[in-house]
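Can't attach files on this board, so I'm pasting raw text. These are the components:
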Amino acid sequence: MGTGRGRFYRKGQVPPVSELKSKIIEALDEAEFVLGWTATGSGAAAPARFHNAGEAEDAVFDSTCVHNLAVQLPRLKDKTVGIVAKSCDARSIVQLAAEREVDLERVKLIAVDCPGMIDVKSIRRSFGFGASIEDDGTSLRIASAEAEREEFIVAKCRGCEDRDGGAGDPGNHPLREKFYSMSAVERRAFWRDHYSRCIRCYACREACPMCFCRDVCIMQTRDPHWIGGGVNSAEAEMMQLIRVNHLAGRCSGCGECERACPVGIPLMLLIDEQNRVIQEMFGYRAGIDPEAKPPLLSFNIKGDIWEEE
Amino acid sequence: MKLIGFLCNWCSYAGADMAGTSRIQQPGDLHIVRMPCTGRINPLLILKAFQEGADGVLVSGCHPGDCHYNDGNYYARRRLELLARMLPAFGIASERFQYTWVSASEGARWAQVVDDFTERVRSLQ
Amino acid sequence: MRIGVFVCQCGTNIAATVDTEKAAAAGSLRDVHHAETIQYTCSDPGQRAIIDAIREKELTRVVIAACSPRMHETTFRRAVTRAGLNPFMMDMVNIREHCSWVHSDVDTATGKAIDLTSMGVARVRKQASLFSSKVPVTNRVLVIGGGVAGIQAALDIADAGLPVTMVERGPSIGGNMARLDKTFPTLDCSSCILTPRMVEANQHEQIDLMVNSEVDTVRGHVGNFEVDIRKKATCVIEEKCTGCMICQEKCPSRAPDEFNAGVGESKAISVPFPQAVPLVANLRKEHCRQFIRGKCGVCKKVCKSGAIDYEQEDEVTTERFGAIVVATGYEPYDWREAYPDYGGGQYPDVITSLQYERLLSASGPTGGHVRRPSDGEEPRQVVFISCVGSRDESVGRPFCCSVGCMYIAKQAILTKEHIPESQSYVFYIDIRAGGKGYEEFTRRAQKEYGAVYLRGRVGKIYPSKGKLMVMGTDTLSGEQVEIEADLVVLAAGFAAAEGAGELARKLNISYDQYEFLSESHPKLRPVETNTGGIFLAGACQGPKDIPGSVAQASAAAAKAIGLLSKGELETSPMVAAVNQTRCTGCFKCRDVCPYNAIEAVEARDGHQTARVVDSLCHGCGVCNVACPPAVISLKGYTDNQLIAETLELLR
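---
Top answer:
Structure tokens for the assembled complex are below.
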């Protein structure tokens, strides 16, 4: 995917960014606009829409372009749009296509190589807001000093299979070992503890490209009344059970839910586990083949890989 | 103990009826909820039951191939197996959940399933 | 909301282990305005008490804690309807089969009954009135199978004025009965009673007879099935063939004689048997020289009416039917692999009873003279072995064929009539002769015709000097028996017709492990299947004799006629429904629906939403679970009802 493996675009590095811009401009021939990133004063890039060549001048791609822009696509179904996508984002687009939420004919994909996104928030937490961050995709300098880049990569990129230096292990959650050493009873307590911090902001849902029900989500209805309106550990647990249930066989593991969580609930532990189980049961990974039948919307009379008897 | 059983109307519910007609004694913890089909059973309903304090959940339907609605239990089989494998990650001991297939003529087997499941959950208490 | 709770004592069936007064104390629950115990709720006075209470207390919903809803749900739905409630405003709670009958401890049973009743109250609180809609039906019936059952059903339905299409996969109707010589216990000639019925079916103006035809695919639903019927190429133009049989005479390719159950030979092109209906030749390509070697053409040359067409291809037609009667019959169990001790088919003089039937028949390959296959000699000692592939767990066929004992007696009698100096021996397990005149008949075989009955199984048959040595045990005397037989006739059990399971899958009906098709209820719905509008007739449902098959065929016909008599059908109210204003149009419901009951419709804002076709929906609820925002909901089993019922237990 993309061009020049290992290359990394940073504002000011003229040739590669110009390449990105020209691709955006090219896509605008057909696309109404292109979803991408623009630089902000804060030092971290922000999502943006480019409607014309002039706006495309502001396009960037750097190691702070952490968002999965595919989340916007289901609401743009009736438009032809372009989108700048990392490999994880592309899997979400493929899965949306498999679920007929995206028409691949109407999405102009601009693929970019991703070196793994850096965790600006945690760097600032450790080094202070003013510390300068320079990253070329292979070496990271914080406050003008060399830093171990892999240590400051966002959680969702650590296990990445598609970038150089990624662990190639999508379930590589920092808390994984701790979590799997616990008994079922301990895990319940672990979750209840984490869930007690939930402020029910729905950021996990909003960041998820596969949660496209939006205003009819069962987390906010009384018919059906699966969940109450309270902000507490029990309701938060139900919220996550709903989310995990709804993502079965659909999640490409982009990690946006956990990254978006303002109170740091390790949501990807459950998601990774489910993705692992789905692969174990059905040999299926979401977002790989837009023609593949999603495992929970199909069945095999003769029994599946995991077949019981 | 509060055990809840979600049974399809056509096979397992009738199998449980058959156990009753045959007067096969069973422990009294299980409460049966009638479902049209295992395909109607939302994994969320099982999770909700656990969340609200159920000690165990038992699901039973027609044997694969015998579904009254042809395919319902095939979908259920996938959903329920996934749930069974996910329960430990949610923090629920996998012994507390079981899904099985009991036909309308398997009254004795139904009683055995109830016996075994009740015993299994009781041993966790 | 005013809920009434009625707890049935069922005499002592419930009251002996459940303190019904305490269970009725679910009356203290929210919204419950009336609670009482009734000795027998299903009785007339019981139902009247419910109706009176609904009227007096102005109840709007009712919970009846009694037996299994599978038993009396319809009874009570009708009762509350008589009191002016919507029938679905009643919910049954099973405190008998699931409670009083399976618990002996009064506290346990009572506690559980209280819980179950409260759960019922929680559930009925969330219930909505449900209504059925009406759909027009197609006034045409498909009968699959042209044996005696299919013929009977087709004639009954056609006589009632409904058009019938009868599909038979073989070249003639008549089925296995056409192969029989005489029938028990009256010994009247099988073809004498059947052939007129076959002709009548063919000539009936309401019956469209399609032979050499099979059901390809079935779509649709009760009242409106759409069926693709494949008419297989036979290289003979049916309308032109006169049945003169010259082609058969001149045909140089030999072929097995299927009608004669493999005894005797036929030709590659042949009329299946002289009384065949329709009387039309058909060509079997796998035996025909024209197709094997690419040249011959004899039949085409000799056919005066130009009925031969080697290029003929299968034709598929699509027809609509309101109801389907399945009458695919049986075939004799293929005993050869399971019984190596009987020679496994190696000994030519060990034959099945159906083959023997052909040897007895005047229209058979020997012209009604009993000659054994190996050397054409008239047998003197004939041994009959019952239950070959019936009542035999060791070969996985535990069920009784229900007719073996009778036709063995018949064949023993006929043997004596054909060959007065012959002696018949019958090895049997039990003599099952439970029908009108049946027991007397088996007695006659023994007393008047001298058949020797030996109770026991045959262990081994082996050839010796042109004879067959039959070794068995007479369990009554405890002695080993050895009989020198000229001919051995095996009473092969019943097997479902080949492909019965496959057809059942096409029809969405269930079948058992032996591929016999399953009735909806063994006693009360013996000809219905679990799929509306599809009925069973004859031995496809299980082993049966001719009167039983005919009776069931008439019953199936009555059901089909009754179904279509009103010209329209009420759909089930318990179907899925989409809240269209909230549907996101993801169509996961359509992906999982086993009945293709979901269609796409355009909402006002132009986006696609799902809609349920009521008459196609069976109410399984698979869609309800597949829908992430749960905007498709199974009526009568809504999420909120199930959640309420579940939470009530855990409260």
